[in-house]
Design a protein that fits this description.
358 residues; single chain; mainly beta; 14-stranded antiparallel β-barrel; two-stranded antiparallel sheet; globular
Length: 358
């Protein structure tokens, strides 16, 4: 059984990896909600926690290779509050199959963009409409060797915008190489690789926001602190956004500045990086304090004439009895920030405690 499973994973990996060469970036990819953080903890860590392996069930959304036996029975709920009436949420459940020593997980995530006022080509009012997207996911994780774990997520995506609709299939493929005695790990992750099955308009299919990421995670020996350094978009060097047709920008303090073609040097290189850190307080990490910095987000969302904390995110996670409660706040733009709330627990613990009382 496991031999067939391994061969199937390898074949599927080759198929979706071939699609990476045709990925897009800079607002040109479809289903951008797939790039939103899966839960409050991940959002606080700058949107990335690829090499973290613990009992947090939501991390299976981030890297399927992090799925492990300790998460069996773990569930996670997340609700995000974005700008205006936009809401984003997710649910995830983990289960371990002892017979095959295989970790399964599945869930759903959605985004609702709220209600819009409809108008025709002349500007006359028509019917109001809503727009939303949803992704259904099933995945698995397996530890192949003492230090190497692999995993895969398969997603079905549906998008509905007014009278237009589209659907696609996508996959995440990940591996984590851990050196436990040195408290470090390396992770390689391919995210959102797939194909659009049906487009919004016939004959105009687009690409998914595919991203190949490499990360290094280290927990300090004499301090309860873990940090990660991540390099994203290995599949594309130029991740600047440049449109020669844009009008000159009008600065807040007066005057204007021409938009110049980006220099593919140091700035473009730094845009590939995201860093984060997590302070783990208590014997069972009862309190976690997190921060993250995403340089690409900071550069894309900054104003030419105004300094800000765009790209910075902060959060905390508190363990109370059998539950973990998380909150994060991410700075996207001067116009507003993103807030996320997460709740996670393990349903197996409730059953065991009940049997113990009987």
């Amino acid at each position: 059984m496991m031999n067939y499973l391994s061969r199937g994973l390898i074949t599927f990996s080759l198929l979706v990896t071939s699609n990476v060469l045709f990925s897009q970036l800079g607002g040109q990819g479809l289903y951008a909600f797939l790039e939103l953080p899966a839960n409050a903890r991940v959002a606080a860590l700058g949107g990335h926690a690829n090499g973290v392996v613990d009992m947090d069930p939501a991390l299976s959304w981030v890297n399927p290779a992090s799925s492990n036996k300790l998460k069996s029975g773990g569930i996670s709920f997340t609700q995000s509050y974005l700008f205006e009436d936009i809401s984003h949420g997710s649910f995830l459940y983990n289960h371990h199959i002892d017979k095959w020593d295989l970790n399964l997980h599945g869930g759903v995530r959605y985004i609702n963009y709220g209600e819009f006022t409809g108008r025709d080509a002349t500007g006359a009012l028509t019917n109001n409409f809503e727009a939303s997207e949803v992704a259904l996911m099933i995945g698995l994780g397996k530890r192949l060797y003492e230090r190497l774990a692999v995993g895969a997520n398969l997603m079905y995506i549906n998008s509905a915008m007014e009278t237009y609709s589209s659907n696609a299939i996508a996959a995440d493929l990940g591996l984590i190489y851990s050196v436990d005695e040195k408290r470090l790990s390396f992770a390689l992750l391919l995210k959102n690789a797939g194909w659009q099955l049906n487009s919004y308009t016939p004959g105009q299919k687009g690409n998914l926001p595919t991203d190949l990421q490499l990360s290094f995670t280290k927990r300090l020996e004499y301090l309860p602190f873990r940090f990660s350094i991540l390099y994203h978009h290995l599949n594309r060097w130029d991740i600047n956004y440049y449109d020669a047709d844009l009008e000159p920008e009008i600065l807040i303090l007066g005057g204007s500045e021409e938009i110049s073609e980006p220099n593919l040097g140091l700035d473009n290189f730094l845009r590939h990086f995201s860093i984060n850190g997590e302070l783990l307080i208590g014997e069972k990490e009862g309190l976690r304090l997190q921060f993250g910095y995403n340089h690409l987000r900071q550069r894309e969302m900054q104003l030419v004439s105004w300094s800000s904390l765009n790209g910075l995110s902060l959060g905390l996670e508190l363990k109370l009895n059998r539950f973990r409660f998380g909150y994060s706040r991410g700075r996207y733009h001067l116009a507003g920030s993103s807030n996320q709330i997460s709740i996670s627990t393990n349903i197996n613990r409730f059953g065991k405690n009940k049997l113990a009382r009987n």
